[in-house]
Amino acid sequence: MPKYMLILRGDVTADFSAYTPDDFAAILGEYEAWSQQLTAEGRMDAGNKLTDQGGMVIHPRPGQRVEITDGPFVEAKEVVGGYYIIKADSYQHAAKLCHGHPNLRFGSIEIREVDFMGGPED
Fold it and tell me: What is this structure's pTM?
């Protein structure tokens, strides 16, 4: 069965100042419930939130091997905040599995099929 990476993007310009700690706990519970549902169906392979701070970016540079900088420094409206790897029958099926995901209230979910480059699937 094909595997798909769900890349969770969030709007960095969103104002969350009105949210209480209880609101954030409830939202986290929604993420966990969604993950547990796919786990129960045998569709979840992996999933993690990415840290909000730090990170590095490796840039190829002419005449140099690489340049490593702190970052990412987002100048775009969205930032990648987490990912899942799930099993689904097709892109359409993966999109259907995303319906009701709480991230859709705060951003978007990019769906990409994992390419095993001719090798066996894990």
Answer: 0.82
